[in-house]
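pasting for the record
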Amino acid sequence: MALPLDWSALATLHGALRAGLAIGLVLSIALGGYWARLYGLQADIDQAHLEANELGQRQAQVGIRMQRLAEERRHLEQAQVRLQDIRWRLAAGEEVGDLVERLTLAAHEHGLLFEQIGVTPQAPADEYRRALLQLRVRGAYPALRTWLEEWLAQRRVLRVRTLVLAPAVPAGRHVEAQFEVELFDPGEDIPVPRSLAHEPARGVTQAVARDLFAPWSEQQLGLGLAQVPLEQIEMVGSLLQGGRRHALLASAGRLYRVGLGDRLGRHEGRVVALEERHVQVRKRLYVGDAWQERSRTLSLRNVAAQGRGDVEDKDGVGAGLAVGDR
């Protein structure tokens, strides 16, 4: 039995199918574009993460370089401070003219006389200007040596090229010193370095008492009996002062009083024992590659002196000094 066909229903079903297919196609295209867009965004995000990591690494490297740069800058500042310190010490913060004026005033205070002062510029070295100072000074040897020790012991760097000492002409008690000193001048005003505040102050220079150009006999008077050979010393008596014994010694026609522990004779001789008629002296000699101590005894020179016995000292003569020098 044949069934009748509903063409209108088929037509309606065919239209709905086509619409569904069209909608499905549109949805598929939209969904594919959406997934493609999401994939591109994910790739961009991954690329952004990579770039952020690279930027982070570069930033870390830049931070390390900045730290090194800051440390190097700090070292550079410290080096500049040390350089300024050294430059100040080379010239002690003064020019050549100021130095010449100061040393001449100091020399006049010691009674010295300048016979020649000359300053000759030298070829510059690095950042420093050099000058050669030529001096000829005349005066007593103790004053000259004290003045030189004070001047050469200052903070300024002074390079002594030549130094000649000779008796002054015409002959007398004065000597003449000729010397050349190389000076450094930075050529600018440099502030006083702070490091000087941590340095101990320089002590006062002791005046020189010994004159190398004086006669030998006069030198011995200034030194007492510290450098007189024991063969030239005689014991002539002894005395008591407040219960303490002293010996009376004679040398070169002068009388000296010596106590226990005083220097006597050469080779670091020292009085180690005192008796009424004897003085024991101990000295140090370098024999056989070693220091050795030896003793020597001085006795009264005659029997008559022994009868005088001890003498009570009422005058208080200084130990080791000639009695006639009070």
